[in-house]
């Protein structure tokens, strides 16, 4: 019989839903050493957390996350709170010997991240950070192709994450859902929220980032704060672009904004190598675009690979060839990999230590933007 692994979730917003859905589905599709059990969820609004628990099938609710940590019947703590609470909860969970699954970004900044890494490593508890896009099968396949050396020497890495949901100046900052606009809760704007995804994938696919050169902008300088009710300065970055140098000698170009009218969650990446190139687009996430210079000249061109066959990453667990999966499945894959890793006594990347590297790059990007090393063009 499969062993149970009891989950205690802290927070229950959008990410609480994606993670809960993953816990509920994973055992139907994967044979794993553990079956996750939705034991408890905590949140500040008694009514809100109760409604969430009923909807997703949690056995119990708590009004204070500390109760989740104290409970002997919780094996793993899933942190789905705003970023400014990650550190305190993760350190307390590690000290209590709990496994931890932490929503991205790991922390508000590198210094906090270092404390969190020290805590989980001292406690020796399994840990992972939900950079879910690594586990879109087409992205995992990109990793396999790169690791097989099929691109040869890499020259360029390019990534964008574009959205348009904060263009209205009437949108307040702070509070449920809108904490992402409040630097005190989020740490940063698009850099920590969106570029962190691009950086995590880039570090995984293309190795370390050595230097960055960045620029940021805050287009709307003041917004009403939901909690105080007053107009307050906006201190997050609304848009950020940076270029960088990777350890392997390639050049990187990254852009993110929440002001790209028409784009809702356009995460794209492209890698150009000596022998081949590949491209991926979250809006078409089951496809990998592949160009191989070794193809016969007359037929050479971009291939659009529909990643849905049993011999492609993760797909043998789902339907039959040709039937695709989507966004929610990236989270199911992360839970599956986490439970397997716990069973095998191995780490489940990205671990806190892996995610700390992303945090370092984010900090470097923000500090470069602050220093504003721009030369005048006119
Ligand atoms: C922001 O809108 C957001 O929900 C991010 O917080 C997620 O990490 C990203 O995957 C989608 O966009």
Topology of helices and strands:
Elements: E1 3-10, H1 14-29, E2 34-42, H2 46-56, E3 60-62, H3 65-70, E4 76-79, H4 86-95, E5 99-103, H5 110-123, E6 127-130, H6 137-147, E7 154-162, H7 183-186, H8 190-206, E8 209-217, E9 222-224, E10 231-233, E11 239-246, E12 251-257, E13 266-273, E14 276-281, E15 287-292, E16 303-306, H9 327-344, H10 352-371
Helix pairs in contact: 1-9, 4-5, 5-10, 6-8, 8-10
The structure holds alpha-L-sorbopyranose.
Residues 163, 193, 197, 265 line the site of alpha-L-sorbopyranose.
Characterise this structure.
The mean pLDDT is 97. This protein has helices at residues 14-29, 46-56, 65-70, 86-95, 110-123, 137-147, 183-186, 190-206, 327-344, 352-371, and strands spanning 3-10, 34-42, 60-62, 76-79, 99-103, 127-130, 154-162, 209-217, 222-224, 231-233, 239-246, 251-257, 266-273, 276-281, 287-292, 303-306. The protein is built from ten helices and 16 strands. It starts with a strand and ends in a 7-residue tail after the last helix. With 378 residues, it is an alpha/beta fold. It is globular, with a radius of gyration of 21 Å. An eight-stranded mixed beta sheet has the order 8-11-12-7-13-14-15-16. A six-stranded parallel beta sheet has the order 3-2-1-4-5-6, sandwiched between helices. It has two domains: 3-132, NAD(P)-binding Rossmann-like Domain (Rossmann fold, 3-Layer(aba) Sandwich), CATH 3.40.50; 133-326 and 336-376, Dihydrodipicolinate Reductase, domain 2 (2-Layer Sandwich). The site of alpha-L-sorbopyranose has 4 residues, from helix 8.
């Amino acid at each position: 019989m499969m062993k149970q692994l009891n989950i205690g979730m802290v927070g229950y917003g959008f990410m609480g839903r994606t993670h809960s859905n993953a816990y509920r589905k994973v055992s139907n599709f994967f044979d794993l050493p553990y079956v996750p059990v939705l034991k408890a969820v905590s949140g500040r609004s008694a009514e809100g957390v109760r409604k969430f628990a009923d909807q997703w099938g949690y056995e119990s609710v708590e009004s204070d996350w500390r109760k989740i940590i104290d409970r002997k019947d919780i094996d793993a703590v899933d942190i789905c709170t705003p970023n400014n609470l990650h550190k305190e909860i993760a350190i307390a969970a590690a000290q209590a010997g709990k496994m931890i699954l932490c929503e991205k970004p790991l922390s508000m900044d590198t210094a906090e991240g270092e404390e969190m890494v020290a805590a989980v490593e001292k406690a020796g508890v399994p840990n992972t950070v939900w950079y879910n896009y690594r586990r879109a099968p087409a992205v995992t396949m990109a990793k396999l192709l790169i690791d097989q050396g099929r691109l040869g020497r890499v020259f360029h890495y390019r990534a964008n994450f574009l959205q348009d949901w904060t263009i209205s100046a009437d949108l307040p900052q702070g509070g449920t859902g809108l904490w992402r606009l409040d630097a005190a809760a989020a740490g940063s704007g698009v850099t920590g929220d969106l570029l962190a995804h691009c950086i995590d994938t880039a570090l995984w696919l293309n190795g370390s980032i050595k230097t960055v050169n960045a620029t940021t902008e805050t287009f709307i300088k003041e917004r009403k704060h939901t909690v105080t009710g007053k107009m307050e300065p906006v201190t997050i970055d609304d848009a950020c672009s940076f270029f960088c140098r990777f350890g392997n000698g390639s050049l990187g170009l990254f852009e993110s904004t929440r002001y790209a009218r028409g784009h809702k969650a356009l995460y794209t990446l492209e890698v150009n190598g000596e022998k081949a190139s590949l491209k991926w687009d979250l809006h078409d996430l089951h496809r990998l675009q592949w160009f191989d210079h070794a193809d016969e000249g007359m037929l050479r061109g971009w291939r659009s690979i529909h990643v849905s066959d049993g011999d492609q990453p993760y797909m043998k667990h789902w339907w039959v060839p040709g039937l695709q999966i989507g966004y929610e499945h990236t989270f199911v894959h992360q839970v599956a990999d986490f439970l397997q890793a716990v069973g095998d006594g191995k780490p489940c990347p990205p671990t806190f230590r892996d995610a700390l590297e992303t945090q370092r790059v984010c900090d470097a990007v923000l500090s470069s933007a602050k220093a504003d090393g721009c030369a005048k063009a006119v």
